[in-house]
Please model this.
Amino acid sequence: MAKKGTILVCDDEEIMRDVLETILSGAGYKVDLAKTGEEAVQAYENKNYDVVLMDVSMPGISGLTALEQIIGIDEDAVILMITAYATFETAISAWEKGAEGIIRKPFQNEQILALVARGIKKRRNEEERVNLRQAMARSVNRESIVVHSQKMEDVFRLVERVAPARSTVLVTGESGTGKELVAKAIHEASLRADKPFVVVNCTNIPSDLLESELFGHTKGAFTGAISAKKGLFEVADGGTIFLDEIGDLRPETQVRLLRVIQEREFTPVGETTPVKVDVRIIAATNVDLKEAVKNGMFREDLYYRLSVVPIELPPLRERREGILPLTQFFIRKYNLENNSNISEQVSPEVLSLLENYYYPGNVRELENIIERAVVIATSDEITVDCLRPEVRDPKLAREMIHEGEGASDEIDISRGVNFYDEVRKFEVDLIRRALDQTGGHQSRAARLLGMNATTLNSKIKSYNLFPEN
Ligand SMILES: Nc1ncnc2c1ncn2[C@@H]1O[C@H](COP(=O)(O)OP(=O)(O)OP(=O)(O)O)[C@@H](O)[C@H]1O
Ligand SMILES: [Mg+2]
Model:
């Protein structure tokens, strides 16, 4: 028979443990026992219980401390305190710390059973609420997003998990890695999906206007404020606001943003009464915010508030296995747009060039390359001469990086360092040596190199390092 619920009983007196165990297991509950507060906390860490019965005075940590620690592990824990000396102060203090109720010794069996039954009911309602919320969350739409590598699988699994919550998310990654795409996916998989998704680029708006853009202003609040204007936070009420390039916020704006996150309210420029809003914040940046914190450019408290859930998007060159599926996705997309019929099957030569290119502009750059190729293709497939010159010729790509032109404006590489080629040569050399040493045994070579075998295998493929036959 399924048990009615799980109970943890914590009391230093053996006789009390026995009595409670007898009453509760007699009523069909599964009971575990702890002799000290420490033991109880540890037991709760291993497995959450439906209800905890906790003695107040015990040697070691007190029942109140154990209560606090268990609430720290599970904020929905249902804990009933038991005490022979139920002073008003203890009761208040237990209640403030999150206890569900207080039971005085000596107690009646029925009293214990009634309180436990009520606790279980509360617990079940809470579980139902959480399940409901999860069931209502939608999954990421894989028709408009290519989830193309293990790393991106992990990213989108996280997206689906955090979507239903309200937590602030910080998306980081180089330019063009898909930060906005991820932010939108979170919004769309959330219960806010039918409310606005508001994008704010913190770089494009002049910094003296940013505050009034975000928080709104009254008529005449400053020169030029000819009429009152709603702030973007108010426009996004109930939905999500996406703060792109968050690293560019001025210190004053950082303070005000911190306040919105903490208090869920803000005061429009020129106004005195604050406005309450329910907005989920997703921030993105391609600069190293931790470094900015160290340099005093970004507030540490704001950084921690923003990065409750950090999502890091790897550069495309670190997920080369995604290049083929993305290429096919973009061929489909631009076939539709241009009413063309270019084959999604790409030739080995074209694929090899695409897979070996460095992509300073990441997925956006690949998308542009494919768009161009689809438009200029003269047959029904993409040929090498449809590719941009720097993709066709690695030497040229390197020169462009050095000249600071074209694709190169997206990355900052000091002149004179033969970056792209050197790293590649170095890596190829190391992989060759490891393969030599292990007689071509890939998983052993991977261990030697300290990388995982799938990574090595994809590098071998993309560098074309198969032994000649
Ligand atoms: N996994 C993916 N599947 C399909 N399209 C993608 C994927 N990742 C990125 N893209 C596309 O690549 C382009 C760039 O993505 P996005 O604008 O989200 O990048 P970003 O990181 O915000 O760039 P920036 O830092 O320059 O603002 C978009 O057109 C986006 O749709
Ligand atoms: Mg962006």
